[in-house]
Write a structure and sequence with these properties.
Helix 1 packs across helix 17. The chain folds into two domains: 168 residues, Rossmann fold (3-Layer(aba) Sandwich), CATH 3.40.50.2000; 195 residues, Glycogen Phosphorylase B (Rossmann fold), CATH 3.40.50.2000. The chain is 46% helix and 13% strand. By secondary structure, it is an alpha/beta fold. Helix 4 links the parallel strand 3 and strand 4.
């Protein structure tokens, strides 16, 4: 999600907007947005709702009072919760869930998340979904809102012009010829890397020299390393160059720019359990690589026509995932053709400048519309 926000900030600055971004300080998002020209304000906040939510919401209210924006755009469930509690409709408000909060939880917590999303819609001038599937899921959950669907976009030209496969592998200290599968994303339950590791032995049975590298970090890192038989690196035993080493599974850790990894790969995989529309597959396709994805929200909308046969599998199905990966690794001509088609598809339909212009249209529509007089104060 941070890359989505960073790319959107860049597009908005290019369009001449004044962008004030509130986010946790000294994070990659804060540094990148500042470099792009945003006015970055520190907002100390955790990833999940908790006892600090009231204070976090008050900080947003204070910032809104100080900056006096024309519009507030809240990204993700946590910021959407804090911002809408703070503003309560006094300023035109856009909420972009980037996958619904209730998909991550079950039982009582899931029911509460659905209730909150339905309730908070009263303070939301527009809910922006990144896929039609995400919008439908919100409607099915009872969220009654004014909707816009704006597909995620990426800086397609940057990924398309990254170094070629050989140069990328040399830069990452990776073997030149071994078949390489790359998975880019936060190491967490949502992204499904545990399913990928379960599927990987079946891939090795059919493609013995194949290598898998997980690019990213997150709360599941230690568990995934243990499942792969790869202990966490330490000062005395650092990770090998490129994070791969002699084993069939490697861990690259967090990277600021995944472009080299996409270009080094023969195939990219995103085995998510839920999404709105995942960004990594779009980046990989912009780099000219075919992507195997799970059939979650946004996946079918992001793939080029006809790629479902080879590149789309059910979530939480290691057998289907392994078969799809091995099948493509064993068919290099098909893989290259799919990669070329994928690159043309993203360059034509998913460039961040197109997405930024569509979001700007939403802003202009909302700020130009007359608003009813509200009496509910912004909490201090």
């Amino acid at each position: 999600m941070a890359r989505v926000v960073t790319d959107l900030v860049g597009a908005q600055v290019d369009l001449g907007m004044r962008v004030v971004l509130a986010c946790p300080p000294r994070t990659p998002l804060a540094l990148a947005a500042a470099a792009l020209g945003a006015d970055v304000r520190p907002w100390p906040a955790g990833r999940e709702p908790g006892p600090g939510l009231v204070a976090e919401s008050r900080r947003i209210a204070g910032l809104v009072d100080l900056v006096r924006p024309d519009l507030v755009h809240a990204h993700s469930a946590k910021a959407g919760l804090a911002a809408r509690l703070a503003v309560r409709g006094r300023v035109p408000t856009v909420y972009q869930p980037h996958a619904w909060s209730f998909e991550a939880v079950d039982g009582v917590t899931g029911a509460l998340a659905r209730r909150w999303e339905r309730w908070a819609a009263r303070w939301t001038d527009r809910v922006v979904c990144v896929s039609e599937a995400e919008r439908r899921r919100g409607e099915q959950a009872g969220v009654r809102a004014a909707w816009s669907v704006v597909h995620n976009g990426v800086d397609a030209r940057r990924f398309a012009t990254a170094p070629d496969r050989a140069a990328a592998r040399a830069a990452l200290a990776l073997p030149a010829s071994d078949p390489l599968v790359v998975c880019v994303g936060r190491l967490c339950r949502q992204k499904g890397q545990d399913t990928l590791l379960t599927a990987w032995p079946a891939v090795l049975d059919r493609v013995p020299h194949a290598r898998l590298v997980l690019v990213g970090d997150g709360p599941a890192a230690d568990a995934l390393r243990a499942a792969a038989g790869r202990p966490a690196p330490s000062p005395r035993h650092p990770a090998p160059p490129g994070g791969a080493g002699p084993a069939a599974v490697g861990f690259a850790g967090a990277v600021t720019d995944p472009a080299l990894w996409y270009r080094a790969a023969d195939l990219v995989v995103q085995p998510s359990r839920w999404e709105g529309m995942a960004l990594a597959p779009l980046e990989a396709m912009a780099a000219g690589r075919p992507v195997v994805v799970t059939d979650v929200d946004g996946a079918r909308e992001s793939l080029p026509p006809g790629h479902e046969t080879h590149c789309l599998v059910r979530p939480d199905d290691p057998a289907a995932l392994g078969a799809a990966l091995a099948g493509l690794l064993r068919r290099p001509v098909l893989r290259e053709a799919l990669g070329r088609q994928a690159q043309r598809h993203v360059l034509g339909s998913f460039d961040v400048r197109r997405s930024g212009a569509a979001i700007a249209d939403v802003y202009h529509e909302l700020t130009a519309a007359p608003r009813p007089e509200l009496t509910e104060p912004i909490p201090q």
